[in-house]
Amino acid sequence: MMSKIKMIGPAVKNVPWQERPEKIVGAPIWRYKENPVIGRNPAEGVARIFNSAVIPYNDEFIGVFRAEQVNGVPYIYMGRSKDAIHWDMEKEKVPFEDENANPFIPGYAYDPRLVKVEDTYYIIWCQDFYGAAIGMAKTVNFKKFVRLENPFIPYNRNAVLFPRKINGNFVMLSRPSDGGHTPFGDIFVSESPDLVYWGKHRHVMGRGRGWWESVKIGGGAAPIETTQGWLLFYHGVSGTCNGFVYSIGGAILDLENPSVVKYRCENFLLTPQEWYEERGFVPNVVFPCATIHDPESGKIAIYYGAADSYVCLAFTQFDEIVDYIKEHSVLTEEDTEIGMR
Ligand code: BMA
C-alpha cells in the first residue's frame, strides 16, 4: 500500500543519513551504526548528554543538549555541528535572561526541545518552578536567549511545541505529572495566542492500551506536518518489576484539531535492545526529542536519548513509517474524541 500523504516543511539537504540495512526487524526504523553519537564525558564539567534536540540553522545544525553536569545537576548546553553527528559544545551553559537582559537562570533544566515557529526558535524544557514545570525561552540568533512566561503550573515535565500556529494560535503538547517519577500520564494539548496565556486544554491520547505504553506517554519530537495530519514520535512507558522501560511510539494527529488522533500505532517503533539503550545511568530508555527531516527525499533522522547516558540517532523513510503506523493503527474512543469534558 503506497500512501499519497506528503511531508510539508522546508527542504533539508543534509539530513544525517545511513541507508536502510537489508534486514531490519520490527518497525521500519534503523539505528545509526556508529551509535552513540555522543558518549560519556563529552565536555568539560559534563558527565553525560542525552534527551537532546537539534535543528538545521543556516548551513549547519544547532543542538540544545540535556547535559548532566559533574555536580549531578542537569542543565542545557548548546552545540554546533556541520553534519549533526560531530558536535562542538559551548563551554558555558545557555545564558538565559529576562526581558530586561538580566540573567534569569533556572535552578536546573532538562529534556529540552528546540522548535522554529515563523522566524523565532523556541527552547522548551523542564525546570523548577516551585516543583517541576515547563520553562520556555526564545532566540533568533542563538546568542541571546530570552525567557518567556512559564506556560503551565507544576507538575508538568514534558512539553513539545508545534512548528507552526494552528488557527492563529501557538500549540503545545504536554504531560501533567507528579513531582516524582510519575506512575501515570497522558498527553494533552493547549493553545496560546501570545505565548503568555495558555488555554483550550484538550486531552490528546491516554496511556494504558498497549502494554509497552501502559504507565505513561509523553510527546517526543516536534510533530512533523503532513498533508494528512501531524506525524508524532512520542515516548511510551511500561512498568516492570525492575522499573520503567521507555520505548518510541508513533501517531498521526489531526491537522486542524490535534487533540483528535487519526492513527496510532499499536506496536512500539523502537524499544531498548542495544547495549547503549539497555545499559547506563537509567537502563532501558529510548527517549526521542527531535527529528531532522526532508520533504523531498522523505528522509527522517530521529534523535533520541539512550539510557539517560547517550545521544543516539535512528533513521526512517517517511512513506514507510506512515504506512506502518496506518497499517498497525488501533484507536480508542479517547483517541478520536475532541478531548474536552
Ligand atoms: C523521565 C525524564 C527523562 C528520563 C526518563 C528516564 O521522567 O526524567 O529525562 O529520560 O525519566 O529516566
3D architecture notes:
By secondary structure, the protein is mainly β. The protein has a single domain (44-335), classed as Tachylectin-2, Chain A. The protein is built from 3 helices and 22 strands. The strands form 5 sheets. A 5-stranded mixed sheet has the order 6-10-9-8-7, with no helix packed on it. Strands 15, 16, 17, 18 and 19 form a 5-stranded antiparallel sheet that branches. The protein has a 4-stranded antiparallel sheet with strand order 1-22-21-20. The protein is globular, with a radius of gyration of 18 Å. The model has no long low-confidence stretch (mean pLDDT 97). Beta-D-mannopyranose is lined by residues 51, 110-111, 246, 282, 285, 287, 305, 308. Beta-D-mannopyranose binds at residues 51, 110-111, 246, 282, 285, 287, 305, 308.
